[in-house]
Design goal:
Strand content: under 5%
Number of strands: 0
Number of helices: 9
Order of helices and strands: HHHHHHHHH
Helix content: over 70%
Mean pLDDT: 79
Structural class: mainly alpha
Oligomer: single chain
Shape: globular
Distance between the termini: 23 Å
Number of domains: 1
Length: 250
């Protein structure tokens, strides 16, 4: 865990250097614009839905004096709806945006690699980089989806067993952390055009490092607003781990 924290701190310092700062800003700006746009659209729809439900609750006759209370409750429901939506998006946004932001992250990993390593990178156009990164994200999504379904089944079984069910959230957290560690490690591997299967095989030789890095990243993504900054920093940290610890594994 301490190694993972060290890599994260190094990545954060690198992200602030002039040579990398603008490449960190691109995915960060993309995340912020996408988050605000989705939040505004979904919030407007949810707010309208809540308002339509409360519109038929206007008291009449002898209960008309309760009108101000009903309006206050409707306003409170509106506020709660926006807050619940904010918390829900803050906890799921990072996962949902992975596929969309993949080209940005791949380009950031390439720039971080150039900054960290003296070894030449394979020559590739931006168009080819974008296509390859998106294709690789689809492969990873399919590869991890069926495994995640199996783990979800295991978690469900554990949840139904008394006493042992306390392990269910831990199993799910560790699995999610492992996947996230592989996700950010893969950006560095993809930059060097190492196959996805080869990357996984090498990562298995450093399970503790990759898993703890993923769990740390997962914990940070649960913090609202912090999760917007975590993604680009985690890409740099994953590239560091790949270049310095994992890439030479056989």
């Amino acid at each position: 865990m301490f190694d993972s924290i060290g890599y994260f701190l190094r990545a954060f310092r690198l992200s602030r250097e002039p040579g990398l700062r603008r490449w960190v800003f691109l995915p960060l700006a993309f995340n912020i614009v996408l988050f605000i746009g989705l939040y505004w659209l979904l919030g407007g729809w949810l707010s309208g839905w809540v308002d339509s439900i409360g519109s038929g609750w206007q008291p009449e006759g002898s209960f008309a004096f309760l009108g101000s209370l009903v309006e206050a409750l409707r306003w409170l429901l509106q506020v709660l709806a926006w807050l619940v939506l904010l918390m829900a998006m803050a906890s799921t946004f990072t996962i949902a945006v992975q596929l969309i932001a993949a080209p940005f992250m791949g380009f950031l990993a390439e720039q971080a690699d150039r900054r960290i390593s003296a070894l030449p990178l394979p020559q590739e156009s931006l168009v080819n980089l974008t296509k390859r990164t998106l294709r690789r994200e689809l492969v990873k999504t399919w590869d991890w989806l069926w495994r995640t379904l199996l783990v979800a089944l295991l978690v469900l079984i554990l949840w139904l067993i008394p006493v042992i069910n306390v392990l269910a959230p831990l199993v799910w957290f560790l699995w999610s952390g492992w996947l996230l560690g592989l996700q950010y490690l893969d950006y560095g591997a993809d930059t060097r055009q190492v196959s996805f299967e080869n990357m996984k095989a090498r990562a298995r030789q450093h399970r503790w490092l990759v898993g703890s890095f993923g769990c740390l990243t997962l914990t940070l993504t649960m913090v609202p607003m912090i999760n917007l900054l975590v993604m680009p920093v985690a890409v740099i940290a994953g590239t560091l781990i790949w270049l310095e610890r994992v890439s030479e594994s056989r």
